[in-house]
Amino acid sequence: MNIEYLKYFAELAKVQHYGKAAKILNISQPGLSHAIKTLEEECGVPLFQREGRNVSLSSYGKELMKDVDDILNAYLRLEERAAGLRTEEKTVRIGTVYPLAAGMVPRMLQKFGATFPFVIYNRLTPEIAEGLMDGKYDIGFCSDLLKSEELEYYPIRESYIAVVVPKGHPLEKRESISLKEVALYPQIMFSKTSGFRNLQEQIFDKEGIKVRPVCTAEEIEVITGLVENGFGISVLPYMDIIRHHNIVAIPVQTSIWKSKFYIARRKYGIRSDQEEAFFQYWRKNRL
């Protein structure tokens, strides 16, 4: 059904006169008559009945009117929302892996001088890749990506493996250290539900070293807190969060792991000028 014809129907039902309704609607009376006749043909029943020079709703028209008000109200809300989308600046939704959320991403936004509204979500890389593809996020910061022709992504920073120790630890002054030396101290590791646990195990396995953690934790915030309070040391990918704790990060001598962080987005999409400029700036620059 034509939404304009439903508006005409509602107005005629209210004023009950073709001439008056046509004037209010700013259309010709024959045009209004044609619209009502079209609606009646679509419904297969008469919607109005004549009462002298006036008209009133038929019993069928009264039934239709019950839904028309709801339809027109919903359509008005839709028009208002669409107008709001046209006038409001687009909020950029950023999905980022945890290592970059607290430090690097805010610094990138600040260095660029971002003035667009944005919201940041902490997610795992597979969740970010999926969110980018289904339109949940506009920009992603990931440690790696599921390969997809729908995405474009570019490296912005490399990471490295470090052992984190509390201030005052015997290893504190070392500039680098071997895994065999690290393994002599109690180890704190990620729990088996964390994607980083496999990484930690691979690092030690490559050197033929077996370690049994003294304790485990799901989140890096908890691990750094345990290290800070003397429960042990931990081999971790270097993350900005380490700088916010009373601990020291010492690069580990290993060649099996090098990680790159990427900025990513869907190849095609509607973007604001600021969002596009931000992505292109970091596509060409690295931290």
Which helices and strands occur, and which strands form pairs?
Layout: H1 3-15, H2 18-25, H3 29-43, E1 48-51, E2 54-57, H4 59-87, E3 92-96, H5 98-101, H6 104-112, E4 118-122, H7 125-133, E5 139-142, E6 151-159, E7 161-166, H8 179-182, E8 188-190, H9 195-206, E9 215-217, H10 220-228, E10 234-237, E11 247-251, E12 259-266, H11 273-284
Task: Output the keywords.
287 residues; alpha/beta; Arc Repressor Mutant, subunit A; D-Maltodextrin-Binding Protein, domain 2; 3 domains; five-stranded mixed sheet; three-stranded antiparallel sheet; 11 helices; 12 strands; transcription; WH-like_DNA-bd_sf; DNA binding; HTH-type transcriptional regulator BenM; DNA-binding
- Estimate the helix proportion, in percent: 40-55%
Overall number of structural domains = 3
Average of the residue pLDDT scores: 87
Task: Going across the biggest sheet, name each strand in turn.
Answer: 4-3-5-12-6
Main beta sheet, described? 5 strands, mixed
Instruction: Give the CATH architecture of the largest domain.
Output: 3-Layer(aba) Sandwich
Please state roughly what percent of the residues sit in beta strands, choosing from under 5%, 5-15%, 15-25%, 25-35%, 35-45% or over 45%: 15-25%
Number of helices: 11
Order of helices and strands: HHHEEHEHHEHEEEHEHEHEEEH
- In quaternary terms, these chains amount to single chain
Q: Which CATH class of the largest domain? A: Alpha Beta
Superfamily at the CATH H level of the largest domain?
Answer: Periplasmic binding protein-like II
Structural class: alpha/beta
Overall morphology: rod-shaped
